[in-house]
């Protein structure tokens, strides 16, 4: 864990966002939006936030428990958790591949990103730990929130159209964040 320099972590954040921006509509790329039951409930071991959280799995796997379902993220998968949704996150290795993800936290007055990793062993080896926070200064935060709200509420009868809309929305968001990071 934490085997990189701050500059290497900054590059990893940018590389991950660029991969999202350049991704084609591939079946291998999954965008997950969990079912939203149980908002604002205090559940044992679960947390919730007052802002959106966007996870991009870089390596390893991440297991999420929600009130109504469980999801597993594989490398390249993205997950958007809306405000108030209780969740429990567990980082998992994949063979020799360590757990690592990018988390972008987005609120109307708050924008932050960090890389999270898990310790290699010990009792907390499944608990993701922020290893490189990077503050983003942006005038686009309200736009980010509106984009994420549209993504959550979009209703398509055609699954392919819905998936393409989700992907393009997250690509637009990633592109704006890259702009705010000066890329």
Main sheet makeup: 6 strands, mixed
Radius of gyration from CA coordinates: 16 Å
Shape: globular
By DSSP, the count of extended strands is: 9
Task: Name the beta content range.
Answer: 25-35%
Based on secondary structure, the structural category is alpha+beta
String of helices and strands? HEEEEEEEEEHH
Helix content percent band: 25-40%
State the distance separating the first and last CA atoms. Answer: 26 Å
Mean model confidence by pLDDT: 86
- Counting DSSP H or I runs of 4 or more residues, the number of helices is 3
**What spatial order of strands do you see in the largest sheet?**
1-5-2-7-8-9
Low-pLDDT windows of residues = none
Brief write-up:
The protein has helices at residues 6-22, 141-153, 159-180; strands at residues 31-32, 52-59, 61-65, 70-73, 78-81, 88-92, 100-107, 110-117, 129-135.
Features:
alpha+beta; 3 helices; globular; 183 residues
Topology summary:
Blueprint: H1 6-22, E1 31-32, E2 52-59, E3 61-65, E4 70-73, E5 78-81, E6 88-92, E7 100-107, E8 110-117, E9 129-135, H2 141-153, H3 159-180
Parallel strand pairs: 1-5
Antiparallel strand pairs: 2-5, 2-7, 3-4, 3-6, 7-8, 8-9
Helix pairs in contact: 1-3, 2-3
């Amino acid at each position: 864990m934490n085997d990189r320099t701050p500059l290497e972590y900054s590059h990893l954040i940018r590389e991950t966002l660029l991969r999202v921006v350049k991704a084609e509509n591939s079946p291998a790329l999954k965008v997950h939006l969990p079912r939203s039951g149980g908002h604002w409930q205090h559940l044992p071991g679960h947390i919730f936030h007052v802002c959106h959280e966007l996870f991009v799995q870089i390596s390893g796997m991440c297991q999420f428990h929600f009130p109504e379902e469980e999801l597993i993220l594989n490398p390249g998968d993205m997950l958007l958790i809306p405000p108030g949704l209780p969740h429990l996150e567990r980082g998992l290795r994949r063979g020799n591949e360590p757990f690592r993800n990018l988390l972008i936290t987005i609120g109307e007055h708050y924008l932050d990103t960090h890389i999270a990793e898990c310790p290699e062993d010990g009792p907390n080896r499944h608990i993701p730990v922020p290893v490189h926070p990077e503050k983003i200064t942006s005038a686009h935060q309200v736009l980010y929130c509106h984009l994420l709200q549209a993504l959550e509420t979009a209703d398509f009868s055609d699954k392919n159209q819905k998936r393409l809309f989700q992907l393009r929305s997250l690509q637009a968001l990633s592109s704006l964040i890259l702009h705010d990071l000066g890329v």
